[in-house]
## 1
Amino acid sequence: MLLISAPAWAGGVLCEPPYNFGLKNGPDRVLCEIQATARRFLDQRNAENRTDWQPLGPDYRIWVPPCQVPMQAVWAVYETRKSVMVSCDRTVPSSDQRKWKVAVEVFSENMQPNFAIHKAAGKFVRREPGWEAGFPAAETMVPRCAAPLAVEWRDGSRNSVDVICHKAVQTTWGKGSWRVRVPVEPVQAPGPTAFLIRLNFLLNWSLLS
């Protein structure tokens, strides 16, 4: 018999797959609440900005204790992929973990991934040794670019670059072109310990080869 995972109710929250673990284990109430909190946050932002963000959901392998207060959601910072950070400020008294935060990745068919903007900036700054690119602001939301991305130093400075799209896909909310700032910082030279480790590796490799 083929068992198909389907939405189920857990503590008053509609539990979406894969957080409903079937007849044997039932839905995971905490993961379902995290997913529902992220979805409510995105629904509000979508209505405000005419976007189409959807939650991919938290990693179903994680475990966090139940939350005693309403969960909160904000755009995540310093995540490789666009994410919503769902947090709990007070868990059940029996838990040693008093607070927690869980990142919920999101996706959109019409959005330019922030990681792609980061990669374009990184490729540009690596033409000059000693620089590395960071990530655009977490709240960055721009339409997917229909042309190759261009990059240039921002205002002649050396602390950031602009990643530029001259032709974006047509949307009801975004502009036909955009420019996104990406921070840049110098790469620190390796210390003497790192140098000695690398030298030792090269010597051992040459002896074995």
Note: Residues 29-49 form the longest helix (21 residues).
## 2
Amino acid sequence: MPWLRLQPGQVANLELREASARRRTQHWVDGRSVECAGNGCPYCAGGSTPKTVYSLQVTWEGSEYTWEMSEAVWRQFCELLPDAARRIGAVVRLKRIGSGPQTRYDLELVRPVSPAQDTAQNNGKDTQAILVPFTLEDVRKVVHEELLGQDFGQMIELIVLTALENWYADAEKE
């Protein structure tokens, strides 16, 4: 899969194809990256400090790419989308600013994952699945009668219902 390469000033809306990035440690040697061998690495022994990079599969303008990013950009990405389970299908806007060692990237969330996509991904189904519209009262009834039919206590019921109410409130905002 080709690497995502942006020119200075270029902007790309990237749809995320996976939730977790691959992490690797590398050295920059003679204008190219070389995987760090860890213990006994000749580049480390020679004084080269390895850098950690992360990569994700993304879609941009209908084509799939591998997006490799520095640790600083990965941290920025994780702040933007902290819940890994809600990343696949989300769209982020990436803008390259500057060039060479002065390069930096701005990230912005363009489209979060919809509740329908989230539910479909978690169930391993097509991401175009549609949520069945349950009311909060329907959910309360199911939680009370089926999940809490035995005496688990009011505290558990309160926790479950509060979480579901928050989820419904978030879903209605989208």
Note: The chain has two domains: 11-113, 132-173.
